[in-house]
Design a protein that fits this description.
The protein has a domain of 82 residues: Tetratricopeptide repeat domain (Serine Threonine Protein Phosphatase 5, Tetratricopeptide repeat). It is 73% helix and 2% strand. The protein has 23 helices and two strands. Helix 3 packs antiparallel against helix 4 and helix 19 runs parallel beside helix 21. Keywords: Repeat, TPR repeat.
Length: 497
């Protein structure tokens, strides 16, 4: 159709431009963001020349281009388009126009993706109030914006998400698609706080309802099923996660295609499922394929590409290929790229710095490892909170490094509160809790420290895996004092759609 339109009406005819935009949107929906950008970038210039910069169609095309930049990980370019677009929309349409609200939402999303949560929160709060005024408290868009606000707001997020879900149930019923969205939001909020068992209590019935209301192969059902598998992983129920993840990849390839972005996310999570049960070669095979596809489709600096390189590094690490792990950090360490793309205080950047510290420690560069690991833990505590799962990982890594350099008392000072926080946050029987208790007991025994009130782990109904965390003893020569090394591999990075 586009080819015929160009031949019959010319390249700059409005109908031709519409067809270019439609094709670009089709590419976008298929996850082919670079193909969409290839069409949208020149389209903006033509649209400005023919229709003018402030024409509604031109403004919508700028909005679409910003969205494509954002999904391609080119956040700075997306921001350069979105900020002036919002100002222009306020001048032309006014603050209360529905399309103006859409553009504010898009800008808030970009700030959030860049880790600029304060800026995102400021817009989200204003947007929620404007939506209530313009559309009404119970309008689907208002509820959706309240949902987004719930995900951003740190202190009142849970209360807001619960309130939004209750309102949606009362207005639309238990099985309405909007109610399912509200359940999904509340589950995400629980997960973000590390309250995985509560998230699971929502996700398990949510998947059943989604299958019933929307169908088993509906994209929203597949997304919720993917999230359920992630919850199982987070809760330490690795076999259940693997069973879902492996089936989901096949369904996603069939329904969406092998190169769809959602299929790639599900492949990444299947690799995580293999990784956490020690099937590293299977994880490695998927990770290598994913990194190549991500670089080709999204570019080397896209956040998803960086995340998959991070996971590939883990697979090499687990297989003892420390040089290969560090080789992936060349010519620029992954953590440095992450600082440039996401910012220094983004949670993913902190995780990659922590893992870099771990890799350096394993090749004997403990001084540099400590230079990185100590400030990372401090940042995690300040930015994420003392009991956030990522903070607990940072504590575990730093305890590992302290043990390697013989600073056992300092390792002990970290591990003692870590065990208690792990019990409170993850639960007594979570694999991470069990491993941390075991490590603490071994370090105590090695340095002849009284066991205090740390009890040995109780028997669990789930078989613990030591593929991610575990303790080992490193004995040098005939030295009667064994040095306990907390062997810790980087935490797996799950992906969400």
């Amino acid at each position: 159709l586009l080819k015929m339109s160009k031949e019959i009406m010319g390249e700059q005819h409005p109908d031709t431009l519409d067809k270019i935009q439609n094709l670009a949107r089709n590419y976008f929906d298929l996850g082919r963001y670079n193909d969409a950008l290839h069409l949208e970038e020149p389209l903006i210039n033509i649209s400005k020349q023919i229709l003018g910069e402030q024409h509604p169609v031109t403004m919508q095309r700028i909005s679409n281009l910003a969205l494509s930049y954002s999904y391609s990980g080119r956040y700075n370019e997306a921001l350069q388009l979105s900020e002036p677009l919002v100002k222009m929309s306020i001048e032309i349409l006014g603050e209360h126009h529905p399309k103006m609200l859409d553009k504010m939402q898009a800008l808030a999303n970009i700030y959030s993706d860049m880790g600029k949560f304060e800026e995102a929160l400021q817009i989200a709060e204003l947007l929620a109030e404007l939506s209530k005024t313009v559309l009404g408290d119970e309008h689907p868009y208002t509820l959706d914006r309240l949902s987004n606000l719930a995900l951003l707001h740190s202190k009142e997020a849970m209360k807001l998400a619960e309130s939004m879900l209750k309102m949606t149930k009362e207005s639309f019923g238990e099985e309405d698609p909007l109610t399912l969205v509200g359940m999904h939001t509340l589950s995400n909020q629980y997960s973000n706080m590390g309250r995985w068992n509560e998230a699971l209590q929502i996700d398990e019935p949510l998947v059943k309802m989604s299958k019933k209301v929307l169908g088993e192969q509906h994209p929203a059902t597949l997304t919720r099923l993917s999230n359920l598998a992630n919850r199982y992983t987070e809760a330490g129920r690795f076999i259940e996660a693997l069973q879902i993840a492996s089936t989901l990849v096949e369904v996603s390839k069939k329904v969406l295609g092998e190169q769809h972005s959602d299929t790639l996310v599900r492949m990444a999570n299947l690799a995580v499922s293999y990784r956490v049960i020690g099937r590293y070669n299977e994880a490695l095979k998927i990770s290598e394929q994913l990194v190549e596809m991500s670089k080709e489709m999204m570019g080397e600096q896209h956040p998803d590409t960086l995340r998959r390189v991070h996971n590939l590094a883990q697979d090499h690490f687990h297989l003892g290929r420390y040089n290969d792990t560090l080789h992936l950090q060349e010519p620029l360490p992954l953590a440095e790229l992450s600082k440039t793309v996401l910012g220094e205080e983004h949670p993913d950047t902190l995780a990659r710095l922590d893992n870099l510290a771990l890799y350096l420690s394993y090749i004997g560069n403990n001084e540099k490892a400590l230079e990185i690991g100590e400030p990372v833990l401090e940042k995690c505590r300040n930015l994420l909170g003392e009991q956030h799962p990522s903070t607990l990982i940072a504590m575990q890594i730093l305890a590992d490094i302290y043990s390697r350099v013989g600073r056992h008392q300092e390792a002990l000072q970290i591990l003692e509160p870590l065990v208690e926080m792990s019990r409170q946050t993850l639960g007594e029987q979570h694999p991470h809790t069990l491993w941390r208790i075991e490590c603490l007991m071994e370090i105590r025994a090695d340095i002849n420290t009284p066991p205090s009130d740390i009890a040995p782990p109780k028997k669990s109904s789930h078989k613990p895996f030591k593929g991610i965390f575990g303790c080992s003893k490193n004995t040098a020569g005939n030295d009667s004092h064994k040095m306990i090394i907390v062997v810790l591999a980087p935490v797996p990075v799950l992906e969400y759609i």
